[in-house]
């Protein structure tokens, strides 16, 4: 799918595309071993719908994804009102006919109800909690009326902690980010009820260092690393993504023993929100998690609106054929 055509579709979507719905993101996914399989649907009246899609084959199994798990929202890119129930059903029929064991579809949260009502029998759901901070009114309004009092207190404490903040859009800070990510993996593994090492293995498999490098390489300055230092030592970092009116908090990591006393993590995210307001952004996407996690509770302090979202594992033609034979 040519980048120019993709950008035309984003323009038709009237700035409703997320960073994960851009050709740069497609290139990052493909840099991790997937192949581009993006679909463009056109109807007789001229209506067009772009579906970002990637394909993976390991020799015995084939899967398609929009996008693979851990790569965020894929789903359709189209002008408002174009994706009717009839057209969504046609797209789902096309996906179910692909020569694959399964097709993973992760639509935009605003359209989840539509897709959920139309997915074919045998579809499995992957429930998610999406938290979005509305930036209307500017940062002063967000600070006073969105941020909880405990967060404002944490920010003031961080301001007295002697933190140094660095920001980069070239990928230069990624090695330090990955060191902090390794420390976070150890912490998450210790806190998990899973067998020792399983949480670390699972999260790292979805987030290898090459993934962050690929995104930085293909999104350029639309991928930024924010780093907090104390005494010259990196103690917390966040990675943010930019597209049109949206800013996305993509990933965070920290050395908790050093970062927690200085409130470095909430301080960084508050700076991201302030910068997003200065850019004139409409919303700050705080990422998505499974409902009820400690990460979800942390983000609540920023006063986001919460949305139930979902991904869908749709049986492909290969799986349907196996069911018929059995």
TrEMBL record:
BioF2-like acetyltransferase domain location: 146-288
Transmembrane intervals: none
Family matches, as SUPFAM superfamilies: Acyl-CoA N-acyltransferases (Nat)
Superkingdom, natural source: Bacteria
Protein name: GNAT family N-acetyltransferase
Gene3D superfamilies in alphabetical order: 3.40.630.30
